[in-house]
Amino acid sequence: MHETKKKNAFKRETTVTLIVLMVLPVLNWLVFWLYVNVSSLALAFQHPRTGEFDLVNFKLLYNSITMKGGEIGIALRNTGLFFAVHLLITLPLSLFIAFFLYKRVYGYGLYRIVFYLPAVIPSLVMVTAFKNFIDPDGPLGAVMKWFGNPLPPEGLLARTSSSVWVIVVYTIWTGFTTDVLLFTGGMARIPTEIIEAAKLDGCGPAREVVSIVLPLIWPTISTQIVLLFTNIFSAGGPVLFLTNGKYETSTIAFWIFTQVYGNGQLGGTGSYNLVSCAGMSFTLISVPLILGIRKLMSKVDTVEY
Q1: Interatomic CA distance for residues 75 and 150, integer angstroms
Q2: Cα→Cα distances 234→66, 93, 129, 181, 251, Å
Q3: Is 46 helix (H, G, I), strand (E, B) or coil?
Q4: CA distance 187 to 217
Q5: Structural domain that includes position 158
Q6: Nearest to residue 167, comparing CAs of 251, 276, 66?
């Protein structure tokens, strides 16, 4: 009887402790996630001025996407460009770089520092250094002038025709860090016995990459691709620091920032209704896309080792 009472008392104390520990996280989730998201969904269907049920936000969103020179349409185009660059250029190049770091080519220690440097140096410092480098009076300007093709006096970031592409170059340069780190980590787990056996069979570097490395680190690659698609509408670069969204360089993420803080062109200052509508619409597009990509990635057989 005494043992039973002790067990029951212990269970009660454990239950009370768990409840006390869970109260704060649950309240945080209810207030800062559930309430915020439910309120956002409601705002999407409200008129910005009257607060009554209306689909005017969806009309504004559609018009700004489809009309020529629309603010959201330009932001969506740039977001798609940054996403495609990361998927088709940065990711494959990261694999290429990671393989050479994994093979410890001559000077690989220096290359590792160069590619990891953007993650160590603060973003503002990197952006400032980059802007000074591409300035007409900077190193790039001096080189271009020496070749007889000087940069425009206003600079590359102050021209609609070149500003987006300059930001793309910056995102490629600073976008290797995470991918290279993850891919080199995946390659480091490959058993050396497999590589040595392949070399004895006359396996060259290209065959090693295609037949050994890629299949063995496919879970890491597929995870990165899925995570990349989860941020498909958040893709972009340091637009705020480089151009402040001018010269048609805005992205969806930057457009939401400007709308919330009152610098947007549509919906007036702090147009939360339009932002909520855009967020819900893009979410409805991205969720099935992410699930489809995840299912597609899972169809590739993984190798256990």
Answers
A1: 30
A2: 20, 21, 25, 22, 8
A3: strand
A4: 7
A5: 57-298
A6: 251
Domain assignment of residue 226, yes or no: yes
Q: Are residues 234 and 175 in the same domain?
A: yes
Judge contact between 258 and 264, C-beta under 8 A. Answer: yes
DSSP codes of every residue in 171-185: HHHHSHHHHHHHHHH
Write out pLDDT tens, residues 241-299. Answer: 899 888 989 999 998 888 877 554 444 456 788 888 888 899 889 999 999 999 998 88
| Residue 257 CA: distances (Å) to CA of 122, 199, 303 | 21, 53, 43
The pLDDT assigned to 267 comes to 42
Q: Which has the closest alpha carbon to 114: 180, 207, 28?
A: 180
**What's the pLDDT tens digit per position in 131-145?**
999 998 889 988 888
Distance CA 194, CA 211 (A): 11
Q: Are residues 170 and 100 in the same domain?
A: yes
Indicate if 133 and 223 belong to the same structural domain.
Answer: yes
Q: Which tokens in the block code for residue 117?
A: 């440097």
